[in-house]
Amino acid sequence: MKTKYGYTSVYLATDSPEVARLAQRTYPKFHFVTQAIDRGWYEDGSNARIEDRMKGLAGRNLRERIAMEAVADLEVMSRCDAFIGTFSSNMGRLAFELMSARKNYIPPFVSLDNAWCAGFSARFSRVFTRNGFRRIDC
């Protein structure tokens, strides 16, 4: 993205404070931006998925905070110029789809895992192209 489009600013949506610090140390030529929140409360010392870690947090009346931080990340991600992330993540797919809808075109993207697929959970999906609908096998 840097070579092709000249992008040097990155919005980093992460639940890990260590990932944010490591990104800046590893890639000093980039400017990383994250939400100005304390991400430490997400950590529980395990490598469990955030969904599993949140189950324990939800009992502490933090559902609203979890939701607001997720929505804020989603809102900012959807306003970026390009997307680098995972399409296996609902947040990643939704951010990319909102970004595309806001721009009215498919922005530059790199998926770190799966190809993007409309109706990701369906075995066969239909996508709309300039030539009408076509069936794709996801």
TrEMBL record:
Annotated PROSITE patterns: GT23
Molecular function terms, GO-annotated: alpha-(1->6)-fucosyltransferase activity
Name this polypeptide is given: GT23 domain-containing protein
Keywords of the record: Glycosyltransferase, Transferase
Domain of life from the UniProt record: Eukaryota
GO biological process, one term: protein N-linked glycosylation
Pfam families: FUT8_N_cat (PF19745)
